[in-house]
Amino acid sequence: MTRRRRILLGLLTILPLLVSLAPPEWLPAWWFSRALSAQAQGAHHVVGPAVFFSLMLRALLWILPLFWLWGFYLYHLTHYNHSLSAGWKAAWAVLLCLGSVAAWPVYWYLFVWRAPAAHA
User: How many CA atoms lie within 13 A of 72 on its CB side?
Assistant: First the structure.
């Protein structure tokens, strides 16, 4: 893997963590829930299906790359990471699955960024 691809993967890896730490005002779901509560309190604007489907499409476009990253790191762990024993691979697999967004940057730094170009 080239240095440029490693950097791009690193940025893609840290993005979900940054979004999860972002203030709720930045997230579309927060705006949608605020609009629904305002509507329930008698506000005159209505949240229609177009807004709902727009938010669901954005969520889908956000979730699909997360599944890709999850699959990539598990594939990288099982097929390209030859520096770990089977026990450590199992431990990292559990950590990558359960810790996902928080564990991915650590794995990226230890085994993708610092790996030799031929093995990453």
Answer: 19
**Contact between 69 and 104 (Cβ < 8 Å):** yes
Give me the residue label for tokens 């996902």. Answer: 100
Contact between residue 31 and residue 52 where contact means Cβ atoms under 8 Å apart: no
Q: What is the dihedral of CA 42, 45, 47, 51, to 10 degrees?
A: -160
Q: Taking Cα atoms as reference points, which of 108, 118, 119 lies closest to residue 6?
A: 108
CA distances in angstroms from 33 to 25, 53, 109, 119, listed in the order given: 11, 14, 37, 46
Token pair, residue 71, equals 């699959």
Q: Provide the residue-wise pLDDT of the chain in tens; the chain has 120 residues.
A: 899 999 999 999 998 888 777 666 666 666 667 666 666 666 555 566 776 777 777 778 778 888 999 999 999 999 999 999 999 999 999 999 999 889 999 999 999 998 866 555
Q: What is d(CA 24, CA 26) in angstroms, rounded to the nearest whole number?
A: 5
109, two tokens = 């730094």
